[in-house]
Structures are given as structure tokens and as C-alpha cells.
Design a protein that fits this description.
The protein is mainly beta. The chain has one helix spanning 5-33; strands at residues 51-52, 87-91, 97-99, 102-105, 110-113, 118-122, 134-141, 144-149, 153-155, 158-160, 165-172, 178-185, 199-204, 210-214, 218-220, 223-225, 230-237, 243-250, 265-270, 276-280, 284-286, 289-291, 295-304, 309-312, 318-319, 330-335. The structure holds calcium ion (CA) (4 copies). One calcium ion binds next to strand 19, strand 20 and strand 26.
Length: 337
């Protein structure tokens, strides 16, 4: 039956009142949640930020990264009050093996280094990741983790490429991990389409820009870089339809990280003070420090971009060799604050 004119006008008035209601809801949601990126533990003011040799594109206002109410108070697993240098890490060797007193560790898991022991933060096999290696991670808040994998994998979302980044929203973390995945960053939407453009290190900056490194040479709109570099992505949209622009954030060859293939940066994290925590695929040597793939070292940058300059801390931030990890590789890190 076709609706008559009266029914049409009733439908129209229903639709317009519904639409008006949705607009109000949207405005209210934006007011409630704000345009704040909540990153756990960041309470220190940023100081000593390095300068860029060229201006970076500004982040687009209006991108909401955290759509949920932040978890109030300390989380029982991700307790963000630290008495030591906090490092979250993933390893590259398939398991199972024991790290500190944590048993059944494999390469899809995330551990937190506790200074004298480790804690299982994210047990990847609990959420369907036992066939893959988690090769990049960053924490957004106490129950939200961004991650990438070293090979394409099929999950409930569909085929996830090694250049993609998923968002994991946890309902439980630790030895029993539960939660759900959603798209955060679709690499192929923004020119990450080749084998060597597998994302192997990420960090999300407080303003919403994304840092990433790749396993091989990378060529995106407007620039190219190598596996020891980090690009900075300024989004106009995250999610299943990712868009934005690129610039060079960290040029590894400027600071002695292009001498061997082993000096591929395979994990990175930036602290609130701007220090860049790095780990490499194999042995590395830079001015002031050398080490192995299971170590984490720190660049205190004086300049970023195409003319990167670092003073390297003379001590490792984390030394896996002290924890029986010499035959392993730390292949993803996050540092807070
Ligand atoms: Ca891993
Ligand atoms: Ca990856
Ligand atoms: Ca890399
Ligand atoms: Ca490493």
C-alpha cells in the first residue's frame, strides 16, 4: 500500500523530530567526553620538547579517540602509579616460556616490567591471537590498547593486514584477557600497501597524532623513509576509513641507526618529556651506547624531522639480557609517562 499525503507528512515530522534529537545527543556527547585524548598516567607537564626543522601539520580538531568514559581511579591490572621506570613490552619468540615469574608467555602477549618482575597485561591467546606476533603497541588509557601484528590475520573484523592498527577495548586484562577489537588505522587507506610497509612500532601522541615505523622502506604520499625512521601521521579520520597526512618525525640515519639492517627500529615510545624510547631488530650502536635487540635505549632529541639530533642516554632503559631474554627480541614497547 502506498502512503497517502497525510501519512507522508506524519513520517516527515517524525523523521525531523528524530533527527533533531540525534543532533542534541551528539552535541551532548561531545560536551561530556570533550575532545580529550586520555592517555594513562600522563600527569607531568611536557617540558623540554624538541623543535622541528619544519612545521608539522596541525592535528584536525574534532577527532575523538576515546569514545568511552575513562576508567576512574587506579586499574587493578594497569596500576599506573609507578615506583620504577615503567615499560610495557612484547617479545618476538613464539612460546610458551617463562619471563620472571610469568609462565606461558608468547609473542602475542604484552608484559609490564615491574623493576623486579613482570606482569602479564594482555594475554593475546585469550582473544584469538595465538597464531600471530604482536609487533607494535601503545596504551591509550587503562583499558584501551592499540596494536599491530607481524602478518595478516583474519579476526571477526575481517582480514587485518600487518600495516593496520587495531584498537582493543578490554573488559578484563591480565591472565584472563577479554574485550573487543575495532579498526583504528587502516594502513592501505594511507599508502601502506607493500610488504615492507608492515607497521612495527607505534605511539599515539597526546594531540592525537600517530607515530609509526615500518619493517622496510616506506613510501607514502609526499615522502619516503627507511625502517630505522619514524613517520608522524596527522589524521583527518581514524578507523575503517583512515585519512590524513604524513611527515618525518625521527630520521634514524641522522643519529647512527642506518649502518646495518639490524638497526631497524622495531619498537618505539615517546615519554611526556619528549624522550624517544627505542628498540631495534638486532644489535645497535650509536654515540654513547650500544646493545642488543632485547634492550631499550633512549634518545633525548634536540631536533626532530629531517634533521634529527639526539643525545643518547648512556644506560639502557630496559635490558632483557638480565632477564634471560638474550635469545629473544623485544619487538614492541610502550613507556609511561
Ligand atoms: Ca611480539
Ligand atoms: Ca605490524
Ligand atoms: Ca622499523
Ligand atoms: Ca628489539
Amino acid at each position: 500500500m502506498k502512503p497517502n499525503n497525510t501519512q507522508f507528512s506524519q513520517i516527515n515530522s517524525l523523521l525531523s523530530s528524530l533527527f533533531g534529537g540525534l543532533e542534541l545527543l551528539l552535541v551532548a556527547a561531545l560536551l561530556i567526553f570533550g575532545l580529550i585524548i586520555v592517555k594513562g598516567g600522563e600527569t607531568e607537564p611536557a617540558t623540554g620538547k624538541p623543535t622541528f626543522d619544519s612545521p608539522l601539520p596541525s592535528p584536525t580538531p574534532g577527532i575523538v579517540l576515546v569514545k568511552e568514559t575513562p576508567t576512574p581511579g587506579p586499574d587493578p591490572v594497569l596500576n599506573l602509579t609507578f615506583t620504577h621506570e615503567p615499560i610495557y613490552l612484547s617479545l618476538s619468540n613464539g612460546g610458551a616460556y617463562t619471563v620472571g615469574t610469568v609462565a606461558n608467555v608468547s609473542n602475542e602477549d604484552i608484559l609490564r616490567f615491574e623493576g623486579t618482575d613482570f606482569v602479564m597485561v594482555f594475554d593475546g591467546s585469550d582473544v584469538g591471537l595465538s597464531s600471530t606476533d604482536l609487533d607494535a603497541l601503545t596504551l591509550v588509557d587503562a583499558d584501551t590498547i592499540l596494536m599491530s601484528f607481524n602478518d595478516p590475520i583474519t579476526l571477526s573484523l575481517g582480514v587485518v593486514d600487518d600495516s593496520d592498527i587495531l584498537q582493543f577495548d578490554a573488559t578484563s586484562l591480565g591472565e584472563t584477557t577479554t574485550g573487543s577489537f575495532s579498526w583504528f588505522f587502516d594502513g592501505s587507506d594511507v599508502d601502506l600497501t607493500l610488504d615492507g610497509e608492515d607497521v612495527d612500532g607505534i605511539d599515539l601522541l597526546p594531540d592525537g597524532q600517530l607515530l609509526l615505523s615500518t619493517t622496510g622502506g616506506v613510501s607514502v604520499s609526499g615522502l619516503s623513509a627507511e625502517d630505522e625512521d619514524a613517520l608522524i601521521f596527522t589524521p583527518t579520520a581514524y578507523g575503517e576509513n583512515t585519512s590524513g597526512s604524513w611527515a618525518i618525525y625521527f630520521d634514524g640515519s641522522d643519529v647512527g641507526l642506518a649502518d646495518t639492517a639490524d638497526e631497524d627500529v622495531d619498537g618505539l615510545g615517546v615519554s611526556t618529556s619528549g624522550s624517544i624510547y627505542l628498540t631495534t631488530l638486532g644489535s645497535f650502536a650509536v654515540t654513547g651506547i650500544s646493545g642488543e635487540d632485547e634492550g631499550v635505549f633512549v634518545c633525548i632529541p634536540a631536533n626532530l624531522g629531517n634533521d634529527t639530533a639526539c643525545t643518547f642516554s648512556s644506560a639502557l632503559s630496559f635490558d632483557g639480557a638480565l632477564w634471560g631474554l638474550s635469545i629473544n627480541d623485544v619487538d614492541a614497547i610502550e613507556t609511561l609517562p
